[in-house]
Amino acid sequence: MALKKTRVAIIGSGNIGADLMYKIRRSHLLELTWMVGIIPDSDGLRKARELGYKTTHRGIEELLEHDDDFTIAFDATTARAHYRHAPLLQEASKIAIDLTPAAVGPYVVPVVNASEHIDKANVNLTTCGGQATTPVVAAIGRVAPVDYAEIVSTVSSRSAGPGTRQNIDEFTETTARGLVELGGAQKGKAIIILNPAEPPIIMRNTVYAKIGKDADQESIKRSIEDMVKAVQEYVPGYRLKAPPIFDDGRVTVLLEVEGAGDYLPRYAGNLDIMTSAAVRVAEEFARRFPQLRDKRKPGDQAGGAER
Amino acid sequence: MSKRRISITDTTLRDGDHAMAHQFTVDHIRRIARGLDEAGVPVIEVSHGDGLSGSSIQYGFSLEPEERYIEAAAEAIERGRLAILLLPGIGTREDLKRAAELGAKIARIATHCTEADISEQHIKAAKDLGLDVHTFLMMAHMVEPEKLAEQAKLMESYGADCIYVVDSAGAMITSQARERVRALREALADSVEVGFHAHNNLCLSVANSVAAIEEGATRIDGSTCGLGAGAGNTPTEALVAVLDKMEIKTGVDLFKLMDVAEEVVLPIMKHIPRIDRASLTIGYAGVYSTFLFHAFRAAEKFKVDPRDILVELGRRKAVGGQEDMIIDVAIELAQRRSQEVAAVPPGGCASN
To answer: I need a surface site. Which of A100, A127, A177, B10 has the fewest CB within 10 A?
Structure first.
């Protein structure tokens, strides 16, 4: 007999919200009930209606009237909107998985630290560059101390929405912080580049890490390869472009992230890795807390307590 | 045309940083900035070649912390104004704030020619700091003049005081430079200046700068001894000489400037930018001039021809800042070649 699924809602019917919808459909642990937007004729809401989900264009307030329909909410709106949504969701004892730059809760990257935060009521998915590169920095760090990690994320111009464009400093600052706080590097630096080439380029990332000249190259290489496999479990298009390059006391790792092509095109690996990670984190919540699966509130174990 | 006034920005201490492999000393900065200032150069730019916070593995580490460079220049400059460069995605508003505190008066904010909207928060932040804002539309040869003008309008709407057509690849022939400057001049309000920044990869830097002026550009970049990425920038001293003969005022003392170029800059140059087969390939293929040294290094490491790397980067439409893609391309070229070698059967070509 199949397990009862955990019911979830998506707030935000833009590109990210719509892509989340298709990914949640494939989940064995999550059941989507609501798609919440603010524009009645948005493509995301229309597709959600066609697929038989409940929809509203009246924002979070209407969703909150249907308390029994969800225990986890994905917020795919904007930082500003999430600042408003976060306390409302907390008051309703819902778990918030935040895909905006608001970062009300701690940063999570599934293969790096998600298990540490599966007791928080609100978690943040950091940035696409952070999702793509932090695992590699952590993989190097578990074998050799990383004095300095630097990452360069290049995304196609088409896949960078207005949110990213108007807040590009948030990308560089948040991603750099994640390399230190999550990846374990002593110092971090992040660079983002938008490339307008047509056809659009697939998201690519370069990770540079200073590891010292005596570091064990074979172990580092194996650790990176293991980590790439772990990420591939939820982002199949995540791959090394070439074996790690060792040079002058540092290692260079070239990564490519191709999306699954659900709602967003395949080149938009930067968006795909965010939605894939969000679903993965929600699944961890669902797996860890069976009580999320019935109509009871998350309760003391999972909900409420923000640390 | 005569009796017009053109304002020169010298970028020896910023674009020249590429040609110096980021190894300027604080003393170099101080002496060159003082010399330029005494020669009457009104705007002197000082930054890592890739802008504030550009010091990195990706682009190369600076010899000294950037604060010390900016501080030294601010102390040396008495008549002119100190400019810094910032590329959104690399530097942040925090960097701008620090530079302003250290004495920068002009923020130059640069984006790829199609991505002007990532500069909004930085342009506004710079204006709030009381800085003049000159913006760059880099790799401007890659888009049509109309599209470039649309992007310039965005920067104008964020508050830019001057918008530059930047030929980062030194790839424009003169008619292309002319059309782009004209498109901006026609699209922008009279209160917004148009600038032109050249690279000499096709040996057209001075000619294109003059054409830009004829189309209404009022700010032109140069670099003493042409010290800059690729085959270098427009040599400031040659530009000033030409403008002087055209009876265009720059306020720069030509002979003093020549002396700075020859006596202060030339002796410390590690690399004399010139039109050789690599930099000419950059201009010809339309590739970011800064890729030059990076392509040499990757070519040596992976045993491929730097020109093949540069041409392939042009084909893939790499944009400024994508130095890491040079490694990708070099690896792929090396792999392709080893496959070709492996595909030849034993005894191969000769016996057939």
So the answer is: A177
